[in-house]
Amino acid sequence: MSPQADTHPPSPDTVDSEIGEAIHALASEIYPICRSITGAGVRQTLDILARHIDLRRVEIPTGNRLFDWTVPKEWNIREAWIKDASGHRIVDFAENNLHVVNYSAPIHATVGLDELKQHVHTLPQQPDLIPYRTSYYAETWGFCMAHRQFEALPDGPYEVRVDAELSDGHLTYGEYLHRGESEREFLLSAHICHPSLANDNCSGLALLTLLAQELSRRSTRLSYRFIFAPGTIGALAWLHGNETAAARIDHGLIVSCVGDGGGPTYKRSRQGDAFIDRAMACLLRDSQPRGRVLDFFPYGYDERQYCSPGFNLPVGLFQRSLFGTFREYHTSADNLSFIRPRYLGESYHLVRQAIEIAEGNWTPLSLCPMGEPQLGRRGLYAATGGRKTGQATMALLWVLNLADGRHSLLAMAERSGLPYAEIADAARRLHDNGLLGTVSDQTADRPAPEG
Amino acid sequence: MSPQADTHPPSPDTVDSEIGEAIHALASEIYPICRSITGAGVRQTLDILARHIDLRRVEIPTGNRLFDWTVPKEWNIREAWIKDASGHRIVDFAENNLHVVNYSAPIHATVGLDELKQHVHTLPQQPDLIPYRTSYYAETWGFCMAHRQFEALPDGPYEVRVDAELSDGHLTYGEYLHRGESEREFLLSAHICHPSLANDNCSGLALLTLLAQELSRRSTRLSYRFIFAPGTIGALAWLHGNETAAARIDHGLIVSCVGDGGGPTYKRSRQGDAFIDRAMACLLRDSQPRGRVLDFFPYGYDERQYCSPGFNLPVGLFQRSLFGTFREYHTSADNLSFIRPRYLGESYHLVRQAIEIAEGNWTPLSLCPMGEPQLGRRGLYAATGGRKTGQATMALLWVLNLADGRHSLLAMAERSGLPYAEIADAARRLHDNGLLGTVSDQTADRPAPEG
Amino acid sequence: MSPQADTHPPSPDTVDSEIGEAIHALASEIYPICRSITGAGVRQTLDILARHIDLRRVEIPTGNRLFDWTVPKEWNIREAWIKDASGHRIVDFAENNLHVVNYSAPIHATVGLDELKQHVHTLPQQPDLIPYRTSYYAETWGFCMAHRQFEALPDGPYEVRVDAELSDGHLTYGEYLHRGESEREFLLSAHICHPSLANDNCSGLALLTLLAQELSRRSTRLSYRFIFAPGTIGALAWLHGNETAAARIDHGLIVSCVGDGGGPTYKRSRQGDAFIDRAMACLLRDSQPRGRVLDFFPYGYDERQYCSPGFNLPVGLFQRSLFGTFREYHTSADNLSFIRPRYLGESYHLVRQAIEIAEGNWTPLSLCPMGEPQLGRRGLYAATGGRKTGQATMALLWVLNLADGRHSLLAMAERSGLPYAEIADAARRLHDNGLLGTVSDQTADRPAPEG
């Protein structure tokens, strides 16, 4: 690539506030929909996202084999409630779609309290919240409710109804490919299977949609593939149908829970030191607050599939708070007031910076390697000596010192401890002053070790 | 090896208490004997151990060369005492064999207090304890006594007598080989040269004897060689006579001081990352309490000889408290009440687990590497989603994720942070469900690095 | 080299106090001179140093190209002052040469307070100190003074005079080469361009001069090149004229600020694990107080030039306090009372120890590698067993254990945690006792990794 490309990002503050509001608005739009791993909720959500980007919808019939899995029946639900003896609806799917176990089998029966209890999930430690529970692959019916309400229930009888259908249909996912100069790809994926949970993962769906929209308006070096698919089965569907495209993935990020005030958090890919792992570690080292980088572990979101041993792709997970570590996780408290425009904006900015690194990383070669060049006569060094040196000057010195053709800008940022953007800016200034040439495009490669 | 072999150990609690009592009983039996690096004490001890295992006794004549060393004269002692002016025995070997310097030359003389003092060892910091002292290779006579008693001694004269003999004879050691399917060996060694010191090393002798007895009743893959030999000279005698056998040693543990309440402690072999080093580090990471792993240093027990540069064998040292770090060390306080059945049992369990790893480690290969297999329909995954995941499920996910043919079970335990036994159990369940195959037997090898 | 060479250094205490006084005396002699990057001050200083060693003076004409740089005009100053309205000299170069901006252009004018302020530098945070400021490559005039005095200045007018000359002349540096058996070189360099600053760098100039004097009286294996040159431009001048000699540099130390009570500090070369980096890290690990080792960064003294990517020489920086981190740095408080004979002596001792390692490091090969040799019969081991072992015995055991032909003495000191001098002494004793042979001279090489 041409090192003249300005890799200097626009001011984060401006980016963050505007985009953060826009992400929150889109997340709010899709929040009320009852999604599951199949069914109308996924399609409704994709319809909304498709107002922003030219989304391709993929439908795979029930019964199709996806590696070790089979596409399940399609689940669609109309209503669900529990009525007490007086006919009063004590829980109602219409009020909160978490009240029904996701993928619940249909039921219409009158049951006593004891039988009801075997089908009700609560959170004794958080007695006012409704839990989120699923039962995709074991056919059963069930409800979720606040523990406090549950404990006060009289003996019954209760009329329970889940007006749902499990029938042959399709698995649905959405895909958007932004083509760049190169066929090599950067994968960005968010799961679309959770019902009304704002952080997990309306936030990720909305962030990636608006990011795809921004990329669609610019030219890029790499191609960017966005996937909005149900967790596990959706990722397997994409992988099963796209083994060739999978082999073109140089970098990947799973994006979820990006709207809360924790973190930021990055979980490395199984490879552990892939380019995306290094880029994210560098960005989170310099973020405010400093982020947390975790080693890969085989539990979480769709990085589980992309990082399975047969694929072993360089795909990491980006979040604010790590899943399972915040009290709102998988409860009715993961609502629209839990996610904030500010944090959504910061998350957007971090993902965008990772893209900037993947796009803009290059390996400078000093044209003046014997001793330092005289920066002063080029206006790149303070005229008065004896004082302390600022970060911008340090970045110039680091880039020159490491411009031996074996250090990419990312490697320089890693070794110097300076932010990538500062290093990239220094390299551009030095290149503009005729002090740096390029070795070759080394974006996705590790720099060779020092000889 | 066949991965069907159940590597799941029996419940530690049951193992520990029974075997701990048995080890303590055997240690108590050999405790009173006055051992040294040669002589009748060693033979008497071996006689007792031979009631449990078919021990081979090796005798090497005085004067034989063992590398840089020469087999010394055989030392045998009948009695030793100091009498005061009134003929009262103020110290008596018959009461505690630590009272005489081990290998003391014979003496029978009447001496003044000043001369006596030059031959008496005490511990001013621990005035009530008798120290343990030796003088193997400098011929002199001497006594050890409590400092408090020593300070109260009147002027004398004193009659001193060491009725001992230093004469041509033999160096004696015991050896037991349990043959397995393979000629490759696991060495287990305890020193037999210390007199009445319970932890150092009646505990090690008793533990290894009962472990040998247990192994003698089962089939193993590896062969197990047990050596009960005097420190330094005994190890050199074995190495000198067994250079071929030494080359077959894949793993080795020196076992001493395994009955106190400290540690557990493992000191790495000189190689530092041998299979035994990795296995012990993994076990002590997960032990209760968590153990301490030390880098090799060339002072201690017979790992000094096995890890000398000409042999450089993968032999580490296993202890509870590290030698020299507990106040009872090399004093009369290292007695039978200092060692406890509970700690002896835990030590036994840890050594046995190391053997299980050496026996049972294998390298799985996923038969379903593209994405995760569907564990749910095999009953290996919770039916209800949305909740936290337990350690047993995490072990299944880790094994599947790392089953790329480059990670042995031990490597999986290391990377996942899960106990080896949990990983081994998960691998067995996955194998039983047809999800794992085997690459080959890689027990003693490091897994190849990830490509 | 012959391992018989006694690498045991003389007692540090004796060395330190005598040499510390001598270094302080020489530093005091050169302290008053107004040095700059060119001019009479450099020559005067070299004249004084040349009383101790046979210094070669190199003069390079103004206008010569040195890589990206050009030799500037020569600067010489006779007097400089500011007079107030009453004709009183409020600052006078004759009193303290820091009062004039180093390399100030000539001026003789009458100016108001406002104009004067634009040419005066002060330290508001340290109002009683005069700062040190330079303007080498931007032609301007200027003064430095105490902020307290500056703030009390009335309106003026002021007569300002800098009677200086900027004219074609030469860049001057001094060089001394002590030839050893080998052509391979150890570079020792101190900057000579700072005016009356005692620590920075009269201390370094004086230390290296007396070290050169000491070396001139002995035979060495390596050759030692001492360079006394102006910062940056002087190092570039030497490198430009000596590319062949530069390729012979195996080890190098920049020496500055070696007289204060902080540190000691070592900043690694760009290579990071060069022999000199390992030697200095080992020495500072064991120094009293323990020193600090920093990774390379491209700001500081002439290691910037030696470690530029086109040279990438193994040259580190040795200091007491790191530059820029002590309050006296680049102020009039960096005077002769700030540097102390004791610290100068300790610094000398540390540099000398680094030389001892470069001279004396060798790779022993045990002649008795099968088990341990019997040290006791050679008088190298305590006759009475059972007690704790001292550091000297541990050094013997470590050397024997690592004498596999793959560990130099330095590698042994690193792995054992024992001081290099202790290891070297043990190796000598073992060699004298016929227990060690030599592999070959491996002074400058890393030991091969363990196979």
Automatic annotation (TrEMBL), chains A, B, C:
Ranges of residues in domain DUF4910: 24-361
InterPro entries: DUF2172, DUF4910, UCP015244, UCP01524_HTH, WH-like_DNA-bd_sf
Span of domain DUF2172: 74-164
Domain UCP01524 winged helix-turn-helix: 363-436
Protein name stated in the entry: DUF4910 domain-containing protein
